[in-house]
Amino acid sequence: MAGENSVMSAQDDKIHVDRVEKRYQVGDRQILALRETSLQVKEGEFICLVGPTGCGKTTLLNMIAGLESVTSGKIVVSGKEVHKPGRDRGVVFQQYALFPWLTVRKNVEFALSMRGIKGIERSEMASEFLSLVNLKAFENALPKQLSGGMKQRVALARAYAAQPDVLLMDEPFGALDADTKSQLQEDLLSSWRQLRTTVIFITHDVEEAVFLAQRVIVMAANPGRVTAEVKVDLPILRDHSVRFSSELLHYKNDIWNRLHSQRVEDGLI
Ligand SMILES: Nc1ncnc2c1ncn2[C@@H]1O[C@H](COP(=O)(O)OP(=O)(O)OP(=O)(O)O)[C@@H](O)[C@H]1O
To answer: For ligand 1, what atom is nearest to the CA of residue 26?
Structure first.
């Protein structure tokens, strides 16, 4: 792995993906979805995974979530080997997995109930998380009355309310228009600065990856693998001005070039 930031001590790691491989059997064919892959993520770090379709981003995320098993190697989160899903790891998908029969507030309160929080405390905490994603005014609406961006905000509030140690996000803003997407990116960063959850975020959008991440993991397909890590040294406070800065453009071009040269090297173009 061409890692600029791969020297990290094991005790700093919140997530340690250790020589993990994933194979799927499809009929009499074996698919190597992820070739031996290692990755370390520090507590409170925000990393993005980028790469072409089929490079194993979702597979890797699902294995960290415990939704998929590893074929070999191991994944350790907070010092414990992952064998199944757990409340320490929250997942946010592209499709907002909300309960359609519950109001916005009840959707968020549900996550708090799962943590055993009841009564006034639950109600107050739900209000805080709804304010965090700017949805207080819509707390009594049902999901079907909301736009895509608003539904995704509810999904975020619910994920935050579950207070996972690790937030795993699979293209959560992929289906949104550009304006809503930028707003949600800025909101996500501002919530992350407050909550300091460890985040792994998948995206196809290189600009989104650079804007959000402290480190971008670049992947390639056939077989799925990590080909580079790029440390993003942009200010921790990233607003609109950072989005159009020459520094961001520099990182964006660097990652584009890496993705492009990998495709050339793999004989795909
Ligand atoms: N359940 C499955 N059974 C068989 N093959 C699978 C399964 N899930 C994923 N794959 C294969 O594993 C490889 C990696 O898939 P994965 O969905 O992880 O890629 P991805 O990088 O997330 O792609 P995309 O960007 O299109 O979402 C692909 O070749 C895919 O076809």
So the answer is: 4
User: What is the complex's ipTM, to 2 decimals?
Assistant: 0.98
Instruction: Examine the pLDDT at 48 and tell me if it is beyond 80.
Output: yes
Which atom belonging to ligand 1 lies closest to the Cα atom of 25?
Answer: 4
Ligand 1 contacts CB of residue 99 (under 6 A): no
Domains of the chain: total: 1
Query: Does any domain span residue 219?
Result: yes
| Structure token pair of residue 243 | 């989005």
The CA 34 to ligand 1 mean position distance, Å, reads 9
| pLDDT of 224 | 94
Can you tell me the distance from the alpha carbon of 160 to that of 167, in angstroms, rounded to the nearest whole number?
8
CA 62 to ligand 1: nearest atom: 18
Global pTM value: 0.90
User: Of all protein residues, whose CA lies closest to atom 3 belonging to ligand 1?
Assistant: 24
Degrees to nearest 5, angle at CA 199 with 178 and 88: 130
Q: How far is the CA of 147 from the centre of ligand 1 (A)?
A: 29
Using alpha carbons, select from 210, 214, 209 the residue that is nearest to residue 231: 214
List the one residue out of 266, 156, 154, 155 whose CA is nearest residue 220: 266
Which of ligand 1's atoms lies nearest the C-alpha of 56? 18
| pLDDT at residue 211 greater than cutoff 60 | yes
Task: Decide if 53 is inside a domain.
Answer: yes
Q: Would you say 225 and 56 are in contact if contact means Cβ atoms under 8 Å apart?
A: yes
Answer whether residue 52 is part of any domain: yes
User: pLDDT tens across 55-88, in order?
Assistant: 999 999 999 999 999 999 999 999 999 999 998 9
Q: Give 21-43 pLDDT, tens digit per residue.
A: 999 999 999 999 999 999 999 99
Report the CATH number at residue 17: 3.40.50
Q: How far apart are CA 245 and CA 248, in angstroms?
A: 5
